[in-house]
């Protein structure tokens, strides 16, 4: 039987990173932390066997002590990107990153010294504060915490050598039709493995061989509920807004992502903020009887072009939660479900905040191979 690595799931959202690692095999979760109450409700629904609630705050001393008392091997975190203060007296990582969630993660890594970690973030991380934020993160992980970060080497003078773009991976290359670039940072402990870490491959996976969907048309579920169709007044507002931007030479505005002339359609990135994530991902759904229909929830009748927002279910498929990650291999049943009372707003937010599980699964398989290679204990 293959060795099981214990992992902790920080800034966990609804557990997408954890699930990607579970699907890779050899990883078992022992502790979780998420501070959004709605996300925690969904997390508990998806992982009902967990003994403890995921509702934890990684910035608190009590949670850090709980991690220190937990035996584990791998730290996972999809932490948000926040501004870092300018380094003061250069007193190690504390001085450089204090006041950010990355500081709390770095502190946990420093105190508990996991064998490996994987951090996930938006692709803006590499350009944030003119690249200074990312440079600080890499410097802290490599020099202060003593980890081999995949994609980073040192020159003869000990300077860190890497290309920030090499940390970005796009969900559309990992089996789902969503244009979603994200940063993945993976590291292995020199304390545990010594110089063996230098023999690891120095590039994370760039793609997944098997596609889950041919393209967006393969994923969309037509004849959606009337409530997802836009009102005629809203469509007119979007059209005016787009025309205004186009007249200024900007590419802003709504997007219909499944126009018939698009050969292999993909969605734009779905966003936690909902609004713009939805407006950049409108679809044509030729459902009969929708045009001109009056709904109490809309100020004007439904539009006559068949334009609607994607449904939360379609967003769940774009992220690999629905129709992939929670399918029971024995029965074929999809066990993904939100808590019954959850409204659409939090569903969109949770999927928009989430990771693309098939992409994370490839990262997890890569980590498993690396650990197998260097973990001779």
Please render the helix and strand layout as text.
Layout: E1 5-10, H1 16-24, E2 27-32, H2 37-46, H3 61-68, E3 74-77, H4 92-97, H5 101-112, E4 116-122, H6 132-144, E5 147-149, E6 153-154, E7 160-161, E8 168-170, E9 178-179, E10 181-189, H7 190-193, H8 216-219, H9 232-247, E11 267-268, H10 275-279, E12 282-284, E13 307-309, H11 312-318, H12 321-325, H13 344-353, H14 357-374
Parallel strand pairs: 1-2, 1-3, 3-4, 9-11
Antiparallel strand pairs: 4-10, 5-10, 6-7, 8-10, 12-13
Helix pairs in contact: 1-14
What does this protein structure show overall?
This protein is an alpha/beta fold and 377 residues long. It folds into two domains: 5-212 and 355-374, Vaccinia Virus protein VP39 (Rossmann fold, 3-Layer(aba) Sandwich), CATH 3.40.50.150; 222-310, no CATH class. The protein contains 14 helices and 13 strands. It has helices at residues 16-24, 37-46, 61-68, 92-97, 101-112, 132-144, 190-193, 216-219, 232-247, 275-279, 312-318, 321-325, 344-353, 357-374, and strands spanning 5-10, 27-32, 74-77, 116-122, 147-149, 153-154, 160-161, 168-170, 178-179, 181-189, 267-268, 282-284, 307-309. Strands 1, 2, 3, 4, 5, 8 and 10 form a seven-stranded mixed β-sheet that branches. The chain has a two-stranded antiparallel ribbon with strand order 6-7. The protein has a two-stranded parallel ribbon with strand order 9-11. Strand 1 (5-10), helix 1 (16-24) and strand 2 form a beta-alpha-beta unit. The longest helix has 18 residues, at 357-374. The radius of gyration is 22 Å and the shape is globular. Residues 86-90 have low confidence and may be disordered.
